[in-house]
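User: Could you check the structure of this?
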Amino acid sequence: MSLSALASQLYDATLAIVYPQACAVCGDSVESRAGGIACALCWEATPLLSGSEILCGKCGRISHGKIADEKREQVHCGFCDDDAFTAARSCGVYEGALRASLLELKRKPQVPQRLASLLAAACRRPPLTESTMIVPVPLHPERQHERGFNQAAILARSVAKFNGLPVDDHSLVRLIHTNRHRTGMDARARRESVAGAFAVKRRRSVQGQRILLVDDVFTTGATVSACSAALIAAGAEKVFVLTAARPQTY
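Assistant: Sure, the predicted structure tokens are below.
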């Protein structure tokens, strides 16, 4: 074990004794700073994607069926036919430690090491490896002023630390201050709520680029599809989507 790793373990142990932190999921003690506000057991219990799962080749919807390895690339759910993005992938299911971490991210602009590592691993898998630029899903200026930061931009900068791609958080803008998506809204209602909500004000910056669009949660794909449509209309070659989480099914 390296001296830095040993020092980190000793620091974590001391911190757990002097300033114990309860896990946001189960209430037990958090043993390490790497896990953020969730303990190691809750991270282990959270369904995370390794890249070996059977997914829709376009939207990344998780399939629980069985299919021959040679046919994996042909899997297509059909629900994403009208979505404007090229492909979408996520780090895991919006449950447990991942859900707690993303809720915390909306309060504090800090990405725990465990989540940062998941984002890095996801962006190293095809087809996201084709990306040439990172663009976070923007908040409307009023909402960003209320919160003080854009959580998607925080995630985007975390991804950039690993893949070295430039982050453009100015070209794509949100024009309409839409209501927050309510629980129970179907896919059509969500799409209607974000129709025309995004635009690109610096078209030259995205022309010919293969964009890696970053957001926190992929639910129906309505928001990232609307963003993708605006980017492609402005001249982007492709738009790949990376979100930290998505529901188990949708």
